[in-house]
Write a structure and sequence with these properties.
The complex is a heterodimer of chains A (about 290) and B (about 525). With about 290 residues, chain A is mainly α. Chain A is built from eight helices and no strands. Chain B is mostly helical. The chains are: A mainly alpha (about 290), B mainly alpha (about 525). At the A-B interface, helix 1, helix 3 and helix 7 of A face helix 1, helix 4, helix 5, helix 6 and helix 7 of B.
Chain lengths: ~290, ~525
């Protein structure tokens, strides 16, 4: 509830409208790229640069305000709620892709294979199709890249699970160190977390190269490849973002930012890191394992 | 009164372009939202006029079928995402901080970004009409495989949806943080005005449903450009999957448009009945129930697509269940008016019309929700009539009511009551002439999204078009009334309406640039809505 402090309402800022314009340029670049326009790359890169500049500039302002003590307890709560609900919206974004995975595994493939009310579907569409998961042979095999094999759960994915779980522990140890005001312990464990994050991304990239090149498992390998790459791909993108965020927090920590009481930016990134961790567990179980 | 407002001007008030482009003021951003949504209302409305002109007579008159379908598609996208939603967010921006005694929205800069994304987003959308292959023409629901046939406009359509989603999610997060963190001491949750309640529940719907839409259109994008098979049976996916994901977003979206309207009506009817709202707590619980149930009814939009019978039955019964909390609301509004000392100023007229006409739309929705009969109504003009009753004479009428109700607080002047009443009667008569015959057209079998039709439908279509033109023209009167009110007129008191309750009426009219910089002291009388 409200404190007696005056709530900090910032003066006008150029970043919101600048950011909107940056997104606009970015999306135009992306759309032109899909349409095969020759200038698409230029527009896209300008868009990326503008978005990056917006993030740097906007966060710079916020960090400056925070460091100069403009934020009351109540402002802190607003930031916490903002980050929490942002993460929830990300959960719902992943839910769409998990929904697609479950629908394919529980409904569309069994129906195409003739189960339940799918008898006629099976008979009249692709009567030779056999329902299976992982799905290597698609109902219409002619237009899809048939994978030789899929990635087994208990190889690199299991190692990656351990890496991410460990990084969840290291970031928590770093948090404890921060709260106990042990700065060098904080920096050490935070650095370990950043390294684990990037190692995960590296392993994932290696795995992609193996799957794409050696196993012929592609986005165009039917629904298995589609769900596999979209789920792990968006997750990998989020891990990369999370690792970059952790890196920024590490650099700020080197500069002596954060106090044992006041370090919301650290916590927000830690929350985000736990979120990508939990999503990975879902992926490991439902994409790789069962 | 003004002791509560604390107008010591230690922030300088910005001026010129910077004031609007760089704004962090909830009132200015609210104004931007409202003006933008009015502009979109007229752009989307112009498209509706093209549609009604084409349907005035059977045969092809003015536009080719492809362009007609673009008009149908873009009209829907603009009205939903450009007119009704931003108008609701604009009202939330203006009124929520005033209603809960907060100095501003919780995250003022993000608030400005939520707004400024919109003009860029709609620039993307409207530009598609001039591209190779034409604008999006497969319906606003973007069903594959049809939507995948779109030309150069396709990625622009997808990215429009993404960018508007970003805007709405940021807006929703801001509203949640504002309501849960910025209330004046003593403003407990169950003492909040109902408009605040309906908006915070709407914000939860936005955060939970829009990312799902973003996921769905992302899958469309990869299906078209990266060879994925989400919506292709040949690869093991299913085009019906898109409909499931889309309507998992789409049905909560219906309540995103409707719940703020419920909040507005629950504010205005007590004012002009001079009685507190009947059943405040039940209104809160009914709103929450509607919101929760809205996530379990999506497949009633796709009864004819070929679902297992158990699915059809589940979604039918779940849909029927929603009529219970909705009924609670309608009866509460009636009970509020019962034996009240009622007067009929323009906001009240629009509110009463809302209760009657939204209920008609609700009943036709009930008919559509019954699986076996939906097989007759599906994709006919009956559906068009249904959702225009709930969205135009429902949501838009409530927004009109809200504008008339709060205009004195925004501008400091009373609007011209006589013109307001004329606008109300013209709108109400025209909207019914426009949409009521469409029920008959649908029951007789006229399909949606078709530029030409059988000669047997000619008479009702002509009547409907005349109503459409009349409705479109009478909205020009609304613009005139608003501009006239902004420029001057009878001075509005802080308490502009005799029976109005709530904190927003304790600050002067027009509301000063900064309000409640220190939290107000609440008295019991202020909270008796």
């Amino acid at each position: 509830m409200a404190t007696k402090d005056i709530y900090y309402v910032p003066e006008g800022s150029k970043w919101p409208i600048f950011g909107s314009f940056a997104l606009f340029v970015l999306f135009i670049g992306g759309a032109l790229l899909f349409n095969g326009n020759t200038n698409a790359h230029t527009v896209l890169y300008i868009g990326v640069a503008l978005v990056a500049y917006m993030f740097v500039g906007w966060f710079n302002d916020v960090i400056g305000e925070s460091r100069s003590g403009k934020y009351s307890q109540q402002v802190d709560v607003s930031f916490r709620m903002g980050m929490g609900w942002f993460i929830f919206s990300e959960v719902m974004f992943f839910a769409a892709f998990f929904g697609a995975l479950f629908y394919a595994r529980m409904f569309s493939i069994p129906w195409l294979g003739g189960l339940g009310s799918g008898t006629a579907t099976h008979e009249f569409l692709w009567s030779t199709f056999e329902a299976a998961w992982p799905l290597s042979v698609t109902p219409d095999p002619t237009n899809f890249d048939q994978p030789k094999d899929v990635i087994p759960a208990f190889g690199v994915p299991a190692i990656n699970t351990l890496i991410l779980l460990t990084s969840g522990v290291t970031v928590t140890i770093a948090h404890w160190a921060l709260k106990a005001n042990k700065r060098s312990t904080l920096n050490l464990w935070l650095a370990a977390t950043v390294i684990l994050g990037f190692v995960f991304v590296y392993f994932q990239a290696e795995e992609y190269a193996h799957a794409y090149g050696d196993l012929n498992l592609k986005l165009s390998s039917g629904i298995y490849g589609s769900t596999f790459y979209m789920l792990t791909g968006f997750h990998g993108f989020h891990v990369t973002m999370g690792a970059v965020m952790l890196l920024v927090i590490l650099l700020r920590s080197f500069k002596g930012h954060f106090s044992k009481k006041d370090h919301f930016a650290f916590e927000a990134v830690a929350w985000y890191w736990h979120f990508v961790d939990v999503v990975w567990l879902g992926l490991f179980i439902f994409v790789y394992w069962v | 009164m003004s002791t509560l407002a604390h107008e010591h001007d230690h922030h300088h008030s910005p001026s010129g372009l910077k004031r609007w482009f760089f704004s962090t003021n909830h009132k200015d951003i609210g104004t931007l939202y409202l003006i933008f949504s009015l502009m979109m209302f007229f752009i989307g409305g112009a498209m509706a006029m093209i549609i009604r002109a084409e349907l005035f007579q059977p045969g092809l008159q003015f536009v080719d079928p492809q362009f007609y379908n673009s008009m149908v598609t873009v009209h829907a996208l603009i009205m939903i995402f450009g007119a009704v939603m931003p108008a609701g967010v604009g009202l939330a921006n203006w009124m929520i901080p005033l209603m809960i005694g907060a100095p501003d929205m919780a995250l003022p800069r993000m608030n400005n970004m939520s707004f400024w994304i919109l003009p860029f987003g709609f620039a993307l959308l409207i530009s598609t009409l001039f591209m190779n292959g034409g604008g999006p023409a497969g319906g606003w629901t973007m069903y594959p495989p049809l939507v995948l046939q779109l030309g150069d406009a396709f990625p622009f359509l997808i990215f429009t949806v993404h960018i508007l989603g970003v805007s709405s999610i940021m807006g929703a997060i801001n509203i949640i943080a504002t309501v849960f963190n910025m209330r004046a001491p003593g403003m407990t949750l169950m003492k909040m005005p109902l408009f605040v309640w309906t908006w915070v529940i709407t914000a939860f719907l936005l955060i939970a449903s829009l990312p799902v839409l973003a996921g769905a259109v992302t899958m469309l994008l990869t299906d078209k450009y990266f060879g994925t098979s989400f919506f292709s049976a040949a690869g093991g996916g299913d085009p019906v999957l898109f409909q499931h994901i889309f309507w998992f977003f789409g049905h909560p979206e219906v309540y995103i448009l409707a719940l703020p309207a419920f909040g507005i009506i629950s504010t205005i009817i007590p004012t002009f009945s001079r009685k507190p709202l009947f059943g405040y707590a039940s209104m809160v619980y009914a709103t929450a129930s509607i919101a929760i149930l809205s996530f379990f009814v999506w497949a009633h939009h796709m009864f004819t697509v070929g679902m297992p019978i158990k699915g059809e039955l589940f979604f039918m019964y779940a849909t029927m269940l929603i009529s219970v909390p909705t009924g609670v609301k309608v009866f509460n509004w009636m009970a509020t008016m019962w034996k009240g000392a009622m007067t009929f100023e323009t906001p009240m007229l629009f509110s009463i019309a809302f209760v009657i006409l939204f209920t008609i739309g609700g009943f036709s929705g009930l008919m559509l929700g019954i699986t076996p009969v939906d097989f007759q109504y599906h994709d006919t003009y009956f559906v068009v009539a249904h959702f225009h009753y709930v969205l135009l004479t429902g949501a838009v009428f409530a927004l009109m009511a809200a504008v008339y109700y709060w205009l004195p607080k925004w501008t400091g002047y009373m609007y011209d009551e006589k013109l307001g009443k004329i606008h109300f009667w013209l709108s109400t008569i025209a909207a019914n002439v426009l949409f009521f015959p469409q029920h008959f057209l649908g029951l007789a079998g006229m399909p949606r999204r078709i530029p030409d039709y059988n000669i047997q439908f000619a008479d009702f279509n002509m009547i409907s078009s005349i109503g459409g033109f009349a409705y479109g023209l009478s909205q020009l009167l609304f613009v005139y009334i608003v501009i006239k009110c902004a420029l001057g007129g009878k001075k509005a008191k802080a308490q502009a309406w005799e029976g109005a309750k709530g904190l927003e009426w304790t600050v002067p009219s027009p509301a000063p640039f900064h309000t409640f910089e220190t939290p107000p002291k609440l008295t019991k009388a202020m909270l008796e809505y």
